[in-house]
Design brief:
α2 packs across α3. The chain has four helices and two strands; from the N terminus they run βααααβ. A two-stranded parallel sheet has the order 1-2. The protein has a single domain, classed as lambda repressor-like DNA-binding domains (434 Repressor (Amino-terminal Domain), Orthogonal Bundle). The longest helix is centred in the last third of the chain and has 11 residues. The termini are far apart. The protein is mainly alpha-helical.
């Protein structure tokens, strides 16, 4: 069975050498919204999660949405 792994939104972003502002633009949200996701204050909607999955090539269940 494959081992489960989780990466935080911040780790995924940093691995792509992107700022929070650049990542927010990629997903189509404001920088503050992305920051809230990274800190766990708010969570992305399903359509936003799909964009994140597509951009990073990572499934939802492998993303840790808690800081």
């Amino acid at each position: 069975m494959p081992e489960k792994f989780e990466l935080s939104l911040a780790a995924l972003r940093v691995n792509k050498n992107l700022t929070q502002e650049e990542m927010a633009k990629e997903v189509g949200v404001k920088k503050g919204t992305w920051q809230n996701w990274e800190t766990g204050k708010t969570f992305p909607s399903v359509p936003e999660i799909k964009k994140i999955e597509t951009f990073f090539g990572v499934k939802y269940e492998n993303i840790n949405f808690y800081p």
